[in-house]
Design goal:
6 helices, two-stranded antiparallel sheet, Rossmann fold, EC 2.4.2.7, 200 residues
Length: 200
């Protein structure tokens, strides 16, 4: 697809067609969103769709998950005119950190870290990642934020809703758990969700 082409009608998720399928085998993610990020209008519309459910919600900071969540997270923070916090894979931060072990989408055991001085109690965080497949990575990020007293708000009347945003939140056990407990936004139209869940 031409990286300068913009369709006449831009329905939610039109930019998903910019993503390229995996040609390198099972050790890689099944889609590569790089071309989406290279397309000026595609990236803008993706971020707008991610933010639409949070219109009017008080968000104090955006946190992006290492590594591809940094792209959408930083773009989202810029649109909101808020600060951006990088949640890192272990071993990259030279300051005091809080660590959380997790299992990623490929079944590998990993550890995630966040600096301890960036989140104060009650800070309302919008967590952004590129993709939620099994939910393990996002759940670890949620645990880090909440252990530091930040709010990735649960779906309850007493809680101010900020939450979780990703291009796709798959209908996996972990994805369903996140959707059931947190306010979420993603870019996949309902009629395409089952195809994304099957990685087609």
């Amino acid at each position: 697809m031409d990286l300068c082409h913009v369709p006449t009608t831009r329905e939610k998720g039109w930019y998903l067609a910019l993503m390229a399928p995996n040609i390198k085998g099972p050790n890689y993610a099944w889609l590569d969103p790089s071309r989406l990020y290279c397309h000026p209008q595609g990236l803008q519309d993706c971020v707008a769709d991610l933010l639409q459910p949070f219109q009017g919600d008080p968000i104090d900071m955006v946190a992006g998950i290492d590594a591809m969540g940094f792209i959408l997270g930083a773009a989202t923070a810029t649109v909101l005119q808020k600060g951006f916090l990088a949640i890192r894979k272990a071993g990259h931060l030279c300051v005091q950190t809080l660590a959380q072990p997790y299992t990623d989408y490929s079944g590998r055991e990993k550890v995630m870290e966040v600096r301890t001085d960036a989140i104060s109690p009650g800070l309302r965080i919008l967590l952004v990642d590129q993709w939620v497949e099994t939910g393990g990575t996002m759940r670890a990020a949620i645990q880090l934020v909440e252990r530091l007293g930040g709010v990735v708000a649960v779906l309850s009347p007493s809680c101010v809703p900020t939450g979780v945003a990703a291009i796709c939140i798959e209908d996996s056990e972990g994805g369903r758990w996140i959707r059931e407990h947190y306010k979420c936004a993603h870019c996949v139209p309902p009629n395409l969700q089952s195809r994304f869940d099957r990685h087609q």
